[in-house]
TrEMBL record, chains A, B:
Taxonomy, superkingdom: Bacteria
Entry keyword set: Magnesium, Metal-binding, Transferase
InterPro entries reported in the protein's UniProt record: Isoprenoid_synthase_dom_sf, Polyprenyl_synt, Polyprenyl_synt_CS
tRNA-binding recorded as keyword: no
Name under which the protein is recorded: Polyprenyl synthetase family protein
Reported cofactor(s): Mg(2+)
Family the entry assigns: Belongs to the FPP/GGPP synthase family.
Length: 330, 330
């Protein structure tokens, strides 16, 4: 890293919270161990050490410190959040039959589906053990609720795929399950452990939710090439998997019979060769631009919620993080 | 049911605790619902309503009442235990690629692996929400620990399969993960919610563990036809799946080079056509009879632990249950 490369917001947060994040990473390594089943730390390390950005545990640690927390339980909660995230990634890759994650072969490919399912279960159980150690029933309530919302959202995504009748309401619920529920819980428990009042807890909840929703909407926008440069990661994955995301749901509502037939063939029947035509239809109805605007609106909500929290350097960095999440769409 | 058909011990327990078990079943139905993802109650109902014996929730309710509990939280804990059990069944059937469970097609066959993985995750999360409602961190600690032991045991079973070097120590760990950990936790939390002292909690823990171990050892014995009538359910499943169970581990240790070659071909390489030869080898070394004796010894431990608990009708029925579990091997 030279002076010429300015740090990104999550990197600045990680630098400002280095001691905390070192403790989180050490705890993750300790708790992913299993004396008797070496397969468990092998599979977990493959994913945990693949260089993820640790955004969720950073949120927990940053929110706790922003709210003046001086204890050590936020480290346990941050590790908890990363374990839940890792467990869902392991299970998602089995569900989606994915072959790549973070630029490396997935665990289900390197080992097998069985290991991914069972190691995910182990991490989920370990995350609850960690939570119990904090002695906070409030925290347990929040994170077990988030885990239920995540699983429900994933099931909803599974049953909504290839279904042209999917509504924007269902879409938002899937978005919350995939991404926003854990962002929200991560931010909120940081405040709870710091002993914030109800108003601040509510602000943290809205901040985490809005940050997660904007993040996921940008992802869905990029899947269709976003503004049109065509360099979005995994361009067309959602299209091929028949996922009903916001730009498609809105274009469907406005399309004529020919377009509806196109979407039916592509999404319901899986004849998804013509991504260019899909992108042209979305562009014609302006729904890619609307989707971008939605992401920006959720970013604004995240920033508005932050404004109700204690003003300090960490708050500023969290605001920059909200900008950074949607910068891919600006 | 006529007078001529005496009730089995678990049926007598269910009859004696009918109001409690009705409440448990009602709570299970309420909590397995999902307003937005109907796939969740569909999959859960398929399994939950397939007529399982509800042994684990019965244990929780019976242990709580045996210890004098007069409140209502044992119902939540019993539903929790059944949800954890159901979640592990859903995931096990994916891991084992099973096609039948409780005489019906498995969920992974009727729907798909994705639904089984995600609905299992949902039930697991819901089970933790239920536990949190009891407000007992002790209970959360016990059940999250059990969940970790279960997942670890399943991973261990996966990596120990087809490995002739598997030890009796590993075997017992797998048995605890598959069966005894949840039996133990189910019995123990019944006592915890009833406010028993440390000595009684320890007795409940030993009772649940020994009951579960004896249950699983009998299962493993029956898989090779037990005493030789050959009517054990799923006769030879473990043999074909290359599982190293107690009778095989002991026969391997005493076999000559020819026998070791047979086991290597059958268990490591999957050439498991000759179940009769396997059974003959086990019989020659007497390891089926030893396995049966092990199950009876664990039954005796379960009964010895029970003797330390309050003497009443429920205790007597739990003792009968311990006998019943191994009666298949007597």
């Amino acid at each position: 890293m030279t002076d010429a490369t300015p740090l990104k917001p999550h990197e600045r947060l990680a630098a400002a919270l280095r001691d905390d994040m070192d403790a989180v990473n050490a705890l993750i390594r300790t708790r992913m161990a299993s004396e008797h089943a070496p397969r468990i730390p092998e599979v977990t390390a493959h994913l945990v050490e693949a260089g993820g950005k640790r955004v969720r545990p950073l949120l927990t640690v940053a929110c706790a410190r922003m709210c003046g927390y001086a204890g050590a339980d936020h480290v346990k909660l941050a590790a908890t959040v990363e374990f839940i995230h890792t467990a869902t990634l392991l299970h998602d890759d089995v569900v989606d039959e994915s072959r790549q994650r973070r630029g490396r072969p997935t665990a289900n490919l390197l080992w097998d589906n069985q290991s991914s399912v069972l190691v995910g279960d182990y991490l989920f159980a370990r995350s609850f053990q960690l939570m119990v150690e904090t002695g906070s029933l409030r925290v347990l309530d929040i994170l077990s609720g988030a885990a239920a919302t995540i699983a429900e959202g994933e099931v909803l995504q599974l049953t909504a795929a290839r279904n042209l009748a999917t509504t924007e309401d269902t879409y938002l619920r899937v978005v919350r399950g995939k991404t926003a529920a854990l962002f929200e819980a991560a931010a909120r428990v940081g405040g709870v452990v710091a002993g914030v009042d109800a108003a601040q807890e509510d602000a943290l909840t809205r901040f985490g939710d809005a940050l997660g929703v904007s993040f996921q909407i940008v992802d869905d926008w990029l899947d269709y090439g976003g503004a049109g440069d065509g360099i979005g990661k995994n361009l067309g994955d959602d299209f091929r998997e028949g996922k009903l995301t916001l730009p498609v749901i809105r274009a469907l509502a406005r399309g004529d019979a020919t377009e509806r037939a196109f979407w039916r063939d592509a999404l319901e029947k899986g004849k998804s060769e013509d991504l260019d035509r899909a992108r042209a239809i979305l562009a014609r109805h302006g729904t890619l631009e609307e989707t971008r605007q939605e992401a920006l609106a959720w970013r604004d909500r995240a920033r508005a919620a932050l404004a109700e929290l204690p003003p300090n350097d960490l708050r500023e960095m969290l605001g920059d993080l909200a900008d950074y999440v949607v910068a891919r769409a600006e």
